[in-house]
């Protein structure tokens, strides 16, 4: 166990002493990445010394707070968080809520704080709404790392997520190719959620640069409810009958968008999605959604747990912690969706 952790810690030290694990636009996190200080020993030596200084890791507890806690995306993030905890020999737990209510989501973090853990990772639903509760934990001596959506105005140590601007740009290139460089697009977004806003920004700016004959004709903010997404998509398509495609900036939106297309009899519309929820994967398999950008969910949880462990045990010493760690993305289409569905079904079955 110690040998494995030493190798991992060495890799982390190398990563954190360079560029914070991934190049990132300042707009992504609300601040530039911090640069680590100079080293007087090799990363391997520092990692070994740091590991040896952690006594009784089994007495430490790290929590991950999320909304939509039974969703496959969330299960995958916690799987990574839990696996890292097992590797480190610490306790982990998932504090979540299946209710679709922002106040309840904030309360999950409040409950986590009351448990007095050694660190908390938070999957943020609304950047501004989480500032106070994250700051409460940080001010109380509990380190906080955000996973996925960020709350850059808070005192959180780091965000483990995807490079959202670049992910949106990738979506623009895929959709641009599918439309042969011309057409009109409806964009679904969610006001107040910074990852959605950055993806839309990357999508629009890349279209303008590389596919100037593709026009974003309307942007519609939708909730997390499929019914809301479907009804607003249908209304937008009715108002703009010349739309050729729908770009969805968040998970599950492609399901609502597809239903909205069905409601107005527009099976010809190209739908592009984000993430890998089971219903969306089935639509990719059926050809109703052309493809989906999947976030590195497992990586989010794994790096968040390791980051909290590093911070709580002061393993970086006087060196700076990065403000962003990239979890990476992959692309799902009909060529690989069957494998994704199989893995998703296994996770859901294991959680029951």
TrEMBL record:
Cellular compartments annotated: Cell envelope
Record-annotated Periplasmic binding protein domain positions: 67-305
Gene Ontology cellular component annotations, sorted alphabetically: cell envelope
Highest taxon above the source species: Bacteria
InterPro entries attached to this UniProt entry: Peripla_BP_I (IPR028082), SBP_2_dom (IPR025997)
Compositionally biased residues, Polar residues: 29-41
Designated name of the protein: Periplasmic binding protein domain-containing protein
Lineage start: Bacteria, Bacillati, Bacillota, Clostridia, Lachnospirales
């Amino acid at each position: 166990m110690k040998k494995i952790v030493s190798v991992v810690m060495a890799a982390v030290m190398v990563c954190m002493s360079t560029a914070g694990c991934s190049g990132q636009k300042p707009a992504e996190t609300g601040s530039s990445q911090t640069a680590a200080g100079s080293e007087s020993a090799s990363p391997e030596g520092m990692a070994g010394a740091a590991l040896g200084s952690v006594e009784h890791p089994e007495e430490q507890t790290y929590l991950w707070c999320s909304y939509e806690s039974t969703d496959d995306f969330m299960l995958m993030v916690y799987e990574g968080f839990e696996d890292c905890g097992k590797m480190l020999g610490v306790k982990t737990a998932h504090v979540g809520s299946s209710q679709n209510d922002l106040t309840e989501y904030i309360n999950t973090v409040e409950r986590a704080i009351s448990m007095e853990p050694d660190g908390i990772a938070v999957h943020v639903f609304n950047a501004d709404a989480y500032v106070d509760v994250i700051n409460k934990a940080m001010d109380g001596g509990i380190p906080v790392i955000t996973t996925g959506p960020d709350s850059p105005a808070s005192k959180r140590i780091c965000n483990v997520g995807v490079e959202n601007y670049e992910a949106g740009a990738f979506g623009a290139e895929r959709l641009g190719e599918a439309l042969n460089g011309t057409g009109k697009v409806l964009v679904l977004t969610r006001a107040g959620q910074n990852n959605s806003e950055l993806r839309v920004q990357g999508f629009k700016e890349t279209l303008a640069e590389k596919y100037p004959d593709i026009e974003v004709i309307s942007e519609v903010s939708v909730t997390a409810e499929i019914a809301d997404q479907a009804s607003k998509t249908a209304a937008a398509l009715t108002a703009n009958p010349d739309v050729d495609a729908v770009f969805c900036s968040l998970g599950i939106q492609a399901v609502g968008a597809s239903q909205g297309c069905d409601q107005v009899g527009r099976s010809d519309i190209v739908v592009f999605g984000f993430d890998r929820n089971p219903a969306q994967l089935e639509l990719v398999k059926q050809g109703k959604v052309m493809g989906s950008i999947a976030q590195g969910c497992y990586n989010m949880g794994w790096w968040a747990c390791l980051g909290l462990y590093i911070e709580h045990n002061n393993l970086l010493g006087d060196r700076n912690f990065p403000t962003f760690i990239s979890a990476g993305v992959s692309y799902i289409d009909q060529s690989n969706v069957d494998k994704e569905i199989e893995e998703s079904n296994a996770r859901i079955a294991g959680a029951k």
